[in-house]
Write a sequence for this structure.
C-alpha cells in the first residue's frame, strides 16, 4: 500500500494522498510509517476501550440511581441476606458422600442393625 | 434408617435458619433505630398485629440501646452482618429527599416505638411497620415526598413503592401490591380491644403483663406454637427471656430431674461449651445430630430402660489439630446417666460395635475393632471410615471414639467422647453431679465466645475442606459467625419446662469489653 506498484502514474499517487496515505521514499521511511501507524491504531483502540468502559460505568451508575430499591424491601432483603450469610456456615457440616459405597457382600452388613439386639 | 441417613439434608437447619432470621430481624430493627425518647406501650404494639402474623418485633427506647457503650462490640458485629449497599443507598436517598442525614432519619422514623410484622402472603411475604412518629415528621414526609392519595385515606409513595396510613401518632407502612397485612394492622388500630391480634394470645399476654422490654419478639414456631422473647440490657450485656414450645430439637426439654447449675459451671470452666440437662425421654428425633449418632448404633428398648435422668455435654476450648491437616476440630464428650453400670457396659460396648458395623457398611470398609483399653472402657478408631463416609471432611478426625462406664458418688454414667481432653474433663466433673438434687432448672449451659470464634476463623481460612462446592460462601458465613461469637465473652442459659408443651428460660449474653 505504501509502495505503489506503478509510481509513475500521477492519478494513483494523488488519489492515495487524498485518501490519507503517505508515500515512503525508501524502506527505512516505510518502516517508520508502519510503526507510526501501529502506534496510532493502538491509541485508537485504547481510546475506544475507555469510551466503552465510561459508557458502561455511566449506564450502571445511572441505572442504580434511577431504579433504587424501596427502603422497606431493601431493609427486609438486607436482613434476610445477613441471615443467609450466617446460614452458609451449615454448608460446612459433614454430609455423607454421594458416591455409593462398594457393596460388601459377606462383609459388614447392616442386617443386625435393623434387628437390634436386646440385653 | 440407612435410607434416611443417605438422604440426609439437615432438616434441623431449617428451624435454626428461621430462628436466626427472626433474631437478626429483631437486632436489625434495634440497630436501625436511633435516638428516641421512651414511648408508652398502652397503644399499638402487638395489639396492632393480627394473630396470624408469622413474626412480630417491637423495639422501644432504642436510644438507650444505641447509647449503651457496653453493647458496642455486639452492635458492630450485627451491623457488619446486616448492612448492605442496597439498604444504605435507599436509606440515604430517602434521607436526602427529606433533607436530613441517615442517622437522623433513623431517629425520626424508627426511634420512638416501632413494630415490624410479617406473614406469608398469597405470592410472597407481606410485611408492615407501625411506627410512632412526631406529627411534624409525618407532615415533612407528605410535603417532601408528595404521595398520591389512595383509597381509605392511604398515601401512596410511588417512588418508594410503599403505602402508608396515618393513625396519629402511628404511621403504618407496607409495600405496594402486598397490603393484606397493612390492611389488617390498620383495622386493628381502628378497632376497639385487642381481639384477633397477637396481644390476645395467652403467651403474648404474659409479655404484656410483665415489665416492657426494649426489644420484644413473637413468632410462630415450627410445631405450631407461639414463641416469645424479650431482650433487656443488664450489667454485663444483654439478658434474653424466652417462652415457647419445647418439644422439638434444639429446644426440646425433658423435666425428669432438676439440674445443678454449679455442676455446669464446673464443667464449663476452660471449655468452649458445656451443657447439663435431662435425658430426652420422648421419641428419637433424627433431625438432631446426637440422636442420629445414637440411632446409627441403635439404642433399643432395653438400653432406654436402663437410662437415668440426666445428661451432660462438653466441648473443649482447645480443639485438636488434625495431623498434617492443620484444621482445628472440636473434641466433645457426652455423659448419659444409667441405672445399672454393669448392664450399661455390655449394652454400650455392643452399641459401639453396631455403630462401627453400620458406618463401615456405608463406607464399604471392614468394621474397625472395638478394643477394650481398660476395665469398662473401650476405644474404636472410626477416622478412616468417617473420612470415607464424609468424603474427607475434617470432622472425620472426630472419629477416635471412646466409650466408658463410670460409677461413683455422682451416679452411674456412660461416657462417649471424641478426644482425650474432653473425656478427662467430663470424667473429672462427674463427681460434682451429686449436688443436683434440688431446684427448678431442667437444662443449663454455658458457651465461651472467643474460643468458638477462633475455631470458626480457622475453618473460614480452610473453607475448601469444609464446603468444596461453595467455599466462598462458607468462608463468609464462618467469618461472620466468628465475629458474632467474638463479641460475646460468655453466654449462660437456664431453661425449665413449665407445663406439658411449654418451656421458658433466660440467657445472659456477656458482651466483650469494648
Amino acid at each position: 500500500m505504501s509502495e505503489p506498484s506503478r509510481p509513475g502514474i500521477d492519478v494513483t499517487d494523488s488519489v492515495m494522498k487524498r485518501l490519507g496515505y503517505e508515500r515512503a521514499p525508501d524502506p527505512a521511511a516505510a518502516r517508520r510509517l508502519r510503526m507510526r501507524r501501529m502506534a496510532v491504531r493502538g491509541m485508537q483502540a485504547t481510546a475506544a476501550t475507555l469510551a466503552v468502559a465510561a459508557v458502561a460505568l455511566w449506564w450502571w451508575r445511572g441505572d442504580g440511581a434511577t431504579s433504587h430499591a424501596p427502603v422497606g424491601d431493601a431493609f427486609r432483603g438486607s436482613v434476610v441476606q445477613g441471615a443467609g450469610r450466617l446460614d452458609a456456615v451449615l454448608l460446612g457440616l459433614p454430609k455423607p458422600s454421594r458416591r455409593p459405597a462398594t457393596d460388601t457382600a459377606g462383609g459388614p452388613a447392616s442386617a443386625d442393625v435393623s434387628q437390634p439386639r436386646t440385653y | 434408617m440407612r435410607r434416611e441417613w443417605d438422604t440426609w439434608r439437615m432438616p434441623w437447619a431449617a428451624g435454626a435458619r428461621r430462628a436466626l432470621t427472626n433474631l437478626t430481624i429483631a437486632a436489625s430493627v434495634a440497630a436501625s433505630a436511633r435516638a428516641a425518647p421512651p414511648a408508652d406501650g398502652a397503644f399499638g404494639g402487638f395489639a396492632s398485629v393480627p394473630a396470624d402474623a408469622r413474626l412480630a418485633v417491637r423495639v422501644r427506647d432504642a436510644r438507650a440501646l444505641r447509647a449503651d457503650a457496653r453493647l458496642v462490640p455486639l452492635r458492630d458485629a450485627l451491623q457488619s452482618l446486616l448492612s448492605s449497599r442496597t439498604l444504605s443507598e435507599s436509606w440515604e436517598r430517602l434521607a436526602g429527599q427529606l433533607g436530613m442525614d441517615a442517622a437522623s432519619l433513623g431517629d425520626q422514623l424508627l426511634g420512638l416505638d416501632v413494630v415490624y410484622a410479617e406473614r406469608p402472603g398469597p405470592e410472597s411475604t407481606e410485611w408492615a411497620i407501625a411506627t410512632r412518629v412526631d406529627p411534624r415528621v409525618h407532615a415533612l414526609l407528605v410535603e417532601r415526598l408528595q404521595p398520591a392519595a389512595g383509597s381509605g385515606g392511604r398515601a401512596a409513595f410511588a417512588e418508594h413503592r410503599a403505602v402508608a396510613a396515618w393513625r396519629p401518632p402511628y404511621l403504618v407502612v407496607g409495600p405496594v401490591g402486598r397490603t393484606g397485612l397493612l390492611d389488617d394492622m390498620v383495622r386493628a388500630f381502628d378497632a376497639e380491644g385487642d381481639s384477633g391480634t397477637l396481644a390476645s394470645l395467652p403467651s403474648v399476654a404474659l409479655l404484656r403483663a410483665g415489665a416492657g422490654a426494649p426489644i420484644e419478639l413473637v413468632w410462630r414456631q415450627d410445631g405450631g406454637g407461639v414463641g416469645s422473647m424479650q431482650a433487656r440490657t443488664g450489667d454485663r450485656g444483654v439478658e434474653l427471656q424466652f417462652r415457647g414450645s419445647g418439644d422439638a430439637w434444639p429446644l426440646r426439654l425433658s423435666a425428669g430431674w432438676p439440674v445443678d447449675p454449679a455442676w455446669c459451671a464446673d464443667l464449663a470452666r476452660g471449655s468452649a461449651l458445656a451443657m447439663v440437662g435431662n435425658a430426652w425421654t420422648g421419641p428419637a428425633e433424627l433431625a438432631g445430630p446426637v440422636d442420629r449418632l445414637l440411632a446409627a448404633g441403635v439404642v433399643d428398648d432395653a438400653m432406654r430402660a436402663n437410662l437415668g435422668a440426666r445428661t451432660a455435654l462438653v466441648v473443649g476450648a482447645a480443639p485438636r489439630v488434625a495431623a498434617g491437616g492443620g484444621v482445628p476440630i472440636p473434641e466433645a464428650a457426652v455423659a448419659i446417666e444409667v441405672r445399672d453400670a454393669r448392664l450399661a457396659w455390655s449394652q454400650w460396648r455392643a452399641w459401639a460395635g453396631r455403630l462401627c458395623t453400620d458406618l463401615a457398611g456405608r463406607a464399604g470398609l471392614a468394621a474397625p475393632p472395638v478394643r477394650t483399653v481398660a476395665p469398662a472402657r473401650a476405644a474404636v478408631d472410626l477416622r478412616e471410615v468417617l473420612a470415607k463416609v464424609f468424603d474427607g471432611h475434617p470432622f472425620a478426625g472426630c472419629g477416635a471414639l471412646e466409650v466408658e462406664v463410670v460409677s461413683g458418688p455422682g451416679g452411674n454414667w456412660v461416657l462417649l467422647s471424641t478426644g482425650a481432653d474432653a473425656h478427662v474433663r467430663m470424667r473429672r466433673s462427674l463427681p460434682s453431679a451429686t449436688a443436683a438434687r434440688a431446684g427448678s432448672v431442667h437444662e443449663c449451659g454455658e458457651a465461651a465466645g472467643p474460643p468458638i470464634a477462633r475455631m470458626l476463623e480457622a475453618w473460614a481460612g480452610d473453607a475448601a475442606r469444609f464446603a468444596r462446592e461453595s467455599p466462598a460462601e462458607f468462608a463468609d458465613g464462618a467469618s461472620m459467625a466468628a465475629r458474632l461469637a467474638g463479641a460475646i465473652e460468655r453466654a449462660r442459659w437456664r431453661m425449665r419446662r413449665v407445663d406439658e408443651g411449654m418451656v421458658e428460660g433466660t440467657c445472659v449474653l456477656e458482651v466483650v469489653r469494648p
Q: What stands out?
A: The radius of gyration of chain A is 37 Å. Residues 1-68 of chain A form one domain. DSSP finds four helices and no strands in chain A. Chain A has a mean pLDDT of 69.
